[in-house]
């Protein structure tokens, strides 16, 4: 019997290539935050918050500020999210004072913007085409990454991730359908399709990201 590499994965964009290659690779996905696995895939900020090493970067940028960073009220998806942490870092960097308004639904942030309840919002690149991403402004090494618990897993995880990226590029429409059907949360096909066609996916070593790790720790 072949031993499957167990990957604990967050049900966000970091998981999309792995979902597409799961039935074609020697991997098994676990959508959870706790337990034992050979690798963990999550946002880079979440990996840092969980005290895990960020060994590989897999998604470059996912968030943008719409229409631009302005107060006094700035909306963001959920307290403790990657968006909130990066927003706080940017507000300090640009010396912008304002009240952060939280929402459990990113779509609601656009609605709040239209009603004038907030002045700007951190939202996904799936919702608007970004002029500039939040990650790039803050200087983040990427949006998502993978922590490897044993070196023997690297080859299998890398091959699975890169296979999933290739599948998404060849047929994004069909890929979006498959991803939506496999995710343990409800996400629209349109959202997934726009992520896999707009976001930059790859699998590369994280290198030295100590300065960003310290930045994240400052705001968690």
Descriptive keywords:
220 residues; alpha/beta; D-Maltodextrin-Binding Protein, domain 2; four-stranded mixed sheet; globular; DUF3834; DUF3834 domain-containing protein
- Class by helix and strand content? alpha/beta
Q: What is the name of the CATH class of the largest domain? A: Alpha Beta
User: Judging by the overall fold, what is the CATH architecture of the largest domain?
Assistant: 3-Layer(aba) Sandwich
Number of contiguous helices: 9
Separation, N- and C-terminal Cα atoms: 43 Å
What global shape is seen? globular
In a nutshell, what does this entry contain?
This protein has 220 residues and is an alpha/beta fold.
Set down the secondary structure blueprint.
Elements: E1 5-9, H1 16-21, E2 27-30, E3 39-43, H2 44-49, E4 56-59, E5 63-66, E6 73-77, H3 82-93, E7 99-103, H4 106-115, E8 120-124, H5 134-138, E9 144-148, H6 154-170, H7 172-182, H8 189-198, E10 201-205, H9 210-219
Parallel strand pairs: 1-2, 1-3, 6-7, 6-8
Antiparallel strand pairs: 3-9, 4-9, 4-10, 5-8
Helix pairs in contact: 6-7, 7-8
InterPro entries: DUF3834
Protein name: DUF3834 domain-containing protein
Organism: Caldisphaera lagunensis (strain DSM 15908 / JCM 11604 / ANMR 0165 / IC-154)
